[in-house]
Specification:
Number of strands: 4
Helix content: 10-25%
Strand content: 25-35%
Structural class: alpha+beta
Largest sheet: 4 strands, mixed
Length: about 70
């Protein structure tokens, strides 16, 4: 069975309330503070990632290094 690899990753931080959407593999993912400060979720499509981000009620940031380039 193949391991599923997400195309998009969200980083959710409720202490500094925001969700950042990244393409998987973006070097900025590791700079967000790592596990413990926030949670990472993987998604197949950017639409799924945006739907999740909207559902949190938090500020949404699209990564300027990989999404908005």
């Amino acid at each position: 069975m193949e391991k599923w690899i997400p195309n998009y990753v969200t980083y959710t931080n409720r202490n500094n309330p925001h969700v950042t959407i990244h393409e998987n593999g973006c070097n900025q993912i590791a700079k967000n503070g790592g596990e413990g400060r926030g949670k990472y979720h993987g998604f197949e499509t950017i639409i799924d990632a945006k739907d999740y981000a909207n559902s949190t009620g938090l500020k949404i940031i699209e990564c300027s290094f990989c999404i908005l380039r």
